[in-house]
Specification:
The protein has two domains: 200 residues, 3-Layer(aba) Sandwich (Rossmann fold); 146 residues, Response regulator (Rossmann fold), CATH 3.40.50.2300. The protein has 14 helices and 14 strands. The protein is α/β, with parallel strands linked by helices. Helix 9 links the parallel strand 9 and strand 10. Strands 3-2-4-5-6 form a five-stranded parallel beta sheet, sandwiched between helices. A four-stranded parallel beta sheet has the order 8-7-9-10, with helices on both faces.
Length: 410
């Protein structure tokens, strides 16, 4: 039999071996990249708190408030979110400076829901070279859905092309023998829509589209374009323009007593900025599509998701203007980010975050219209690809029909 001393040494050796094994197991369970500790997840963001797009600044404020709520509830798997959000004034050079600061100085884990197509285009290659997630971007460009060339970049809201496909599907169903006039901005925004419509029309595009008319954003008035389009005999008018020009188009169509079916991008669905300036009577019957609930619309008052949203606003954003669609948008984006981090468990590596972001299945944030869900995959970096059609009636937007998906041929 071993002596007492030998037994003690054996016990020590066994305990030491167990400690080594236990620490290896702990290490195997927890994997961290920069920006993550046992108690914190540091998330970066750039937002237009000033400058020409400052109306969107409330998105960043909503996300900050949402993460505060999550932290008050104990965080994510015990870790609190440290949300670091900087102002880039919607200026690409400033965006480059702030993103570099977030990644190189602040050492954030990822950048979440940064705003703007020109601003985020300026840092997309940098993000991908650094392998730091550029996740759930707040821009409608379709180019963020390119996992092959940009595996570290993913958008969030339906892209312009997605919405255009849904409009085209609606036209084919409602007016299969339509004569379509497309009025669009001569930029990436307008061209994305044009491409989406043609993708769904396919071989029928040549016979369905009777006119394509573009405008420059520097034009003071687009009246002459509308007169020209009326002359084509079109019975469907697709209005792919920003708010000022969308209002001008609706107004001119009414003045000309032209009565086509009007479909308008959701970029311009603001009642205050578009429908009222165009004239509520002139706007009657205009069609568009949406994926977010309007918190000021009484139709959602008994909706469970909206009840949660209103409780959040009351506690964390008292006095906020709930008719501002940027608030339900920021809430949905933050809720989706939290879901992805929950799915990561203790494997909080940048690679796993992108893997989990590309593994969402029918996730339904509280502020999305019932039936619209978030689904992604390794080759599908477009989280929201469904919308519901709506029509402007008696001074407000009314939903109708089923949820329409953007898949071509689907």
């Amino acid at each position: 039999m071993p002596s007492n001393t030998a037994r003690t040494l054996l016990s020590f050796a066994a305990a030491a071996a167990f400690t080594v094994l236990a620490s290896h197991a702990a290490l195997a369970q927890k994997k961290y990249d920069p920006g993550v500790t046992d108690t914190e997840i540091k998330i970066g963001n750039v937002e237009a708190y000033s400058g020409p797009a400052s109306a969107y600044g409330v998105i960043g404020k909503t996300e900050d408030a949402y993460f505060k709520m999550i932290n008050d509830q104990g965080g994510i798997n015990g870790r609190k979110i440290n949300f670091v959000s900087y102002d880039d004034g919607y200026s690409p050079p400033k965006t480059v400076e702030q993103i570099r600061k977030l990644i190189e100085s602040d050492e954030v884990f990822l950048v979440f829901n940064a705003l703007g197509t020109p601003t985020q285009t300026a840092v997309q290659k940098y993000h991908n070279a650094k392998k730091v997630p550029q996740l759930f971007l707040a821009t409608g460009a379709s180019k963020w859905n390119d996992p092959k060339d940009f595996p570290w970049t993913m958008g969030f809201q339906p892209s312009y092309r997605v919405e255009a496909r849904i409009f085209a599907k609606y036209i084919l169903k409602a007016k299969p023998d339509a004569k379509v006039a497309i009025f669009y901005a001569n930029d990436d925004f307008g061209k994305d829509y044009l491409a989406g419509i043609k993708e769904v029309f396919g071989d029928k595009a040549k016979s369905l589209i009777v006119a394509e008319e573009s405008y420059e954003t520097t034009e003071p008035s687009i009246d002459s374009h509308i007169v020209k389009l009326k002359g084509t005999g079109a019975d469907v008018f697709v209005n792919i323009s920003t708010p000022k020009f969308a209002a001008q188009a609706i107004k001119k169509i009414a003045e000309l007593e032209w009565k086509p079916m009007q479909i308008m991008t959701d970029v311009s669905i603001s009642i205050g900025a578009v429908m009222k300036p165009a004239g509520l009577e002139a706007s009657e019957g205009v069609l568009s599509a949406q994926y977010l609930k309007d918190a000021s619309d009484p139709q959602w008052k008994d909706d469970e998701g909206m009840k949660k949203f209103m409780a959040f606003v009351d506690k964390y954003m008292p006095g906020a203007n709930i008719s501002d669609s940027n608030i339900p948008y920021g809430y949905a984006a933050a809720q989706t980010m939290v879901q992805v981090l929950k799915q990561c468990g203790d494997d909080l590596t940048r690679e796993n975050v992108m893997k989990q972001a590309a593994s969402l299945k029918n996730f339904a944030p509280d502020t999305l219209i019932p039936g619209v869900t978030i689904t992604t995959g390794p080759n599908d970096f477009a989280p929201i690809e469904q919308l519901r059609m709506m029509q402007f009636k008696n001074g407000k937007w009314d939903f109708f029909g089923d949820i329409i998906s953007a898949e071509v041929g689907g």
